[in-house]
Amino acid sequence: MCLGIPGKVIEIRDDGSMLMGKIDFGGVRKEACLAYVPEIEIGDYVIVHVGFAISRLDEEEALKTLELLRMLDDDAVAMELGSMFAPDEAAEPAGAAGAAPPAATA
Amino acid sequence: MKYVDEYRDSEIACKLLGEIHRITTKPWSLMEVCGGQTHTLVKQGIDEALPKGVRMIHGPGCPVCVTPLEQIDKALAIAARPDVIFTSYGDMLRVPGSTTDLLSLKARGADVRIVYSPLDAVKIAVANPDRQVVFFAIGFETTAPANAMAVWQASKLGLGNFSVLVSHVLVPPAMTAILDSPTCQVQAFLAAGHVCAVMGWTEYEPIAAKYGVPIVVTGFEPLDLLEGILMAIRQLEEGRAVVENQYARAVKREGNRSAQAVVGRIFEPGDRTWRGIGSIPASGLHIRSEFAKFDAEARFEVGDIHTQEHPACIAGQILQGTKTPLDCAAYGTLCSPQKPLGAPMVSSEGVCSAYHAAGRGLAAPTAFPLYELSRPDR
């Protein structure tokens, strides 16, 4: 039901009573209500729940988090994991990880 | 930056998992509140890859699962009326009521329609002025802004043929109820990121302080969950209990003020019964009297509801985290996604359906854990 999915704002319009727009979810385009993200601009990413954008995604925060995650200590990790994840498996690109479900809820 | 693939990087996932193993010195029990988080944890096998003794308890954050049987039976009574077009999120259609479900009712001729957004239900009301259009407004704080906006729009348009059957629940009172239970084993929470995107996290600060539990606002992708678990365990290991925000890209401390304003205009807090759990004080949202004419319960006479749960279903204990689907005698035998006895087996956010989809406790596994999913040949 209330899957929250990130998508890119590609169209913004005021339909008279509400701010509406079109969102691109990796190729699939859908209408969404933008009334709760009035500051939104074309090209921004939002989280959409049941046809409503509820949050504008903050690129700066997102990059900061990813940067911190990438800096995790490799040696300590390798020591802890031991043979659980063999290095050749762990180093492979995240191919089918993209097949995981789009996002989530509540 | 697409905000999806970046958070499914298997190399970083392995590093995070390693860091969790490195810092963990004691057994800990964490609860992920949201059913969407449960599905990612189970599908990716994250809960099974954690250090021995670290346990993920699955929380009650599946809106479909906790919608009380009485409301489902009321929905069925309203949907059966010939003058009604009954609209609902798709997940609700197969949730068993006392005697039937919305999908069976539809098969027997009732006008039951699935909508993606409550605004679609408003459009149906505009297009069908001679019919009563009812929307089943269920969910947590995440769907409340959408459902509130539908009522607001109907009010602005002066629609006399639109109403909502409300069954809204709130997360913080449920967390408090879980912590107050004498059998509570939860030592830290992963709070639901999208609930916090709407509401912020100020409501959680007194809970963390009063009960001494770390609360980490967490997102839904595999890396989000791993980082949320790492942050929660770090707090537990260091003896801290505060609210931290893992999901900073989507959640601000104050939440979404314009959404909160519309929700507060249409709804007010009140007691609410949770299916399988019971009544929790001030844990729900009800329509304000000013908008009472849009309340389907006031518009249609739906008294005399006698509810009857299936005797084999232990959904209540599963939703409270005291049992898992594997403790249920009916799981995978009497009860399956094709023939569900309880809501957690139906919903895309239900823990029973998550276990079933991952093949847990079944003869033939149907999914692969984290390190297998990340292989490019799959």
In short:
The complex is a heterodimer of chains A (106) and B (378). Chain A has 106 residues and is an alpha+beta fold.
Number of domains of chain A: 2
Structural class by sheet pairing and helices of chain A? alpha+beta
Which structural class do the helices and strands of chain B define?
alpha/beta
The CATH homologous superfamily of the largest domain in chain B: HypD, alpha/beta domain 2
Q: Which stretches of chain B are poorly predicted, pLDDT < 50 over at least 5 residues?
A: 366-378
Helix share, percent of chain B: 25-40%
In the CATH scheme, the class of the largest domain in chain B would be Alpha Beta
Sheet-strand content of chain B, in percent, reads 15-25%
In total, the number of strands of chain A is 5
Write the element-wise H/E pattern of chain A from the N-terminal end onward: EEEEEHHH
Give, in spatial order, the strands making up the sheet with the most strands of chain B: 4-3-5-6-11-10
Give the CA-based shape of chain B. globular
- The span between the termini of chain A is 9 Å
Sheet with the most strands of chain A?
5 strands, antiparallel
Order of helices and strands of chain B: HEHEHHEHEHEHEHEHHEHEHEEHHHH
Taken from the alpha-carbon principal axes, the silhouette of chain A is elongated
Summed up, the domain count of chain B is: 2
